[in-house]
Amino acid sequence: MKSEQTDGNKEMIAFGFMNIIGSFTSCYLTTGPFSKTAVNFNAGCRTAMSNVVMGFCMMLTLLFLAPLFRYTPLVALSAIIMSAMLGLINYDEMIHLFKVDKFDFVICMAAFLGVSFISMDVGLMLSVGLALLRALLYVARPAACKLGKIPNSSLYRDIEQYPGSIPIQGVLVLQLGSPIYFANSTYIRERVLRYIKEEQGVSDSKTDIIEHLLLDLSGVSSIDMTGIETFLELRRILDSKGIKLSIVNPRIEVLEKLTLAKFTDAIGKESFYLSIEDAVQNCRFSLHSSKTTMEESYNDQNVV
């Protein structure tokens, strides 16, 4: 509400420390519900000393004033808490989340409704669980895109984002943008094979034949042994189809693991390239089908 910086770790340490100390005196477990925060803020509290004052007042109330509030309806107490809590709801931010990202809006509402109607623990578990589910979905289904050449340049970009980009005939360029490990290796393999199947189409035309597959690994930050085995299996499948696999611009961490796993020896060091342009230039001279047509098309792309 006041744009102050908070440290959630310190807050959790404080809660745990208070609960440990309170356990020696048969004290109730200490938490920080949303409703209490709303009441404190609307009451004008500024520092953590307000909790000490509140605790002291609560002790006096329980000892001396409890009989006077014995018959106070729970509805009245709930109305006091709800009126304070409703003042902290940022409706504009919720609407903004709904417009920008529906899943973020679902996480927000799960936390709000869970804390408001059940308990703080349930609300936090719901929101954190949904956030972890979203992260797992992103990791298990990483982004992959087909790249095409921007006319009159040496740049290669996503053909869906840049409709003017032109695919290279006989060469399929794919970009992977996430770590490759056991959770997503199967999806990546199937995704690459699906791209090849879509590129070749259902016709028997020789112009649809893919002879080279270039994998741009500049966005892959890490890879595990399962990911390397996936690349080896993918290479065997591609060899049976007459397609040569090449790697473009792997990061140093990825390249070290590929070298230690003998993957570089398996596909040959000549199959690693610094840039997509270098790889495409090399593939142009090794194409067997429609070589003349491809060269003419490639030259037309570079004509100003």
Automatic annotation (TrEMBL):
UniProt keyword annotations, A-Z: Membrane, Sulfate transport, Symport, Transmembrane, Transmembrane helix, Transport
Keyword flag Membrane: yes
GO cellular component terms attached to this protein's record: membrane
GO molecular function, one term: symporter activity
Transmembrane portions of the chain: 12-31, 43-65, 71-91, 103-133
Record organism: Gossypium lobatum
Taxonomic classification: Eukaryota, Viridiplantae, Streptophyta, Embryophyta, Tracheophyta
Membrane topology note: Multi-pass membrane protein
Subcellular location: Membrane
Record-linked InterPro entries: SLC26A/SulP_dom (IPR011547), SLC26A/SulP_fam (IPR001902), STAS_dom (IPR002645), STAS_dom_sf (IPR036513)
Major localisation: membrane
Domain called STAS: residue spans: 161-283
Name of protein: STAS domain-containing protein
